[in-house]
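Amino Acid Chain and Its Fold in Token Form
===========================================
What this section holds: a protein sequence and its matching fold, both as plain text.
Structure line: whole-number tokens from a learned vocabulary of local backbone shapes, matched to residues.
Purpose: to set a sequence beside its fold so the mapping can be learned.
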Amino acid sequence: MPREFTPKVVTANALIEGDVVYLTSDDRWTRHLSEAELITDEAHAQLRLLMAEGQPNDVVGVYLAEAVAGPDGPEPTHFREAFRRKGPSNYPHGKQAELTDV
């Protein structure tokens, strides 16, 4: 029996900067998970994934990541995505310094 679809966000890495980015409902890439489109329908998720994969000049490594609705937008359900959201782990500045509460 197939597993029930769980909500997801489309994520990737920005081609030039390498930053983690998320697809918004208005087809923009954002560096803030809270602005990402939380997709609750499997067919819609596959369409959004295909659209994102068609942007090789902007992003690389596109995939669907599980998420849940949080008070301020989507939140990761897996430690990998929580880790990716914070940025590189070898420098305590930049995005990591800004996300001290995460």
